[in-house]
Amino acid sequence: MAKPLLFLDIDGVLNPVLPSAEFTAYDILDHTVLLSAAHGAWLRELSAVYELTWASTWEHEANRHIAPRLGLPVLPVVEFGRYRPRPGDPRLPRADLFTGRKWAPILRHAAGRPFAWIDDVIPRRLARQARFRPDRVLLRINPGHGLNRGHVDRLLNRGPLPTRSVRLARRESLTVHQF
Ligand SMILES: [Mg+2]
């Protein structure tokens, strides 16, 4: 069975706002980017369980500039810039249109597979809805400090369940939304 997907944001997750001793500053494409070797090790650990996928506005630049510095291979990329809304996309309240702009492309990319999404910008409403979806884990990350070991343990110990479990949950009449 295919692994669940792990959608990875970069800024505010792997590149935190606040510098600390574990991070090295790099000048990349006119930005100062803070990266940590520990993040690379954690992501390689997670790759045993998940199919890592970039879900960042860095898009393909993540494979050129971030992945090599974290010791990661070239990863699949969710393309946000080229995404055009399609019939059947989830409808978001106006207040969430900006913060939820990654949601439809992520769902299209997942195409029904279980997934986790780690990002510092996830509408609270989406995070709440995901609690009713055993096949989805949405983790809102504090951008000040970025990804920590607690998040990794959560993803390893209580990750998204296979879709079969969702079918069972449906039978037990748990509320499951299409999107
Ligand atoms: Mg971010």
From TrEMBL:
Under what name is this protein listed? HAD domain-containing protein
Tell me what organism the protein belongs to: Streptomyces fildesensis
What taxonomic lineage is listed for the species of origin? Bacteria, Bacillati, Actinomycetota, Actinomycetes, Kitasatosporales
